[in-house]
Amino acid sequence: xxxxxxxxxxxxxxxxxxAALCRxxxxxxxxxxxxxxxxxxxxxxxATRRLLRLAAGGSDADTTPDPAAAQVVRAxxxxxxxxxxxxxxxxxxxxxxxxxxxxCGWPIPADEVEMRARFVDGDLLRFHAWCFDxxxxxxxx
Length: 141
Known about the structure:
By secondary structure, this protein is an alpha+beta fold. The chain has helices at residues 6-45, 47-55, 67-79, 129-139; strands at residues 90-95, 113-118, 124-128. It folds into two domains: 6-45; 67-139, no CATH class. The protein has a three-stranded antiparallel sheet with strand order 1-2-3. The longest helix is centred in the first third of the chain and has 40 residues, at 6-45. It starts with 5 loop residues before the first helix and ends with a helix.
């Protein structure tokens, strides 16, 4: 029911516009929360993020030494076919490169973590996470 009162018409128009803007804002907030959840889920599942967590000292992977691999690594250390000096050049954590592990000899798949120990002389050793753990403990004890 239209009125001839311009103030009433202006207030009604402003209220309707405010209600429409509130609905739009609510929709945007809901969509942004869904987007935030999707981003968090994507980051959590990202292999690179997993590597960064491992490099920072976290662990979402099983770094418990595989008994067979640990035995091979210890045998290589005892024979002297695996370096015993500490890696002062640093340790790098990457995706697996399909190259064989210097510890157990098995390839390091791309969906697993590869630990690379660098030495001052430029030498590089590649390990599975559990093989690196076994080697590191044996060398640094």
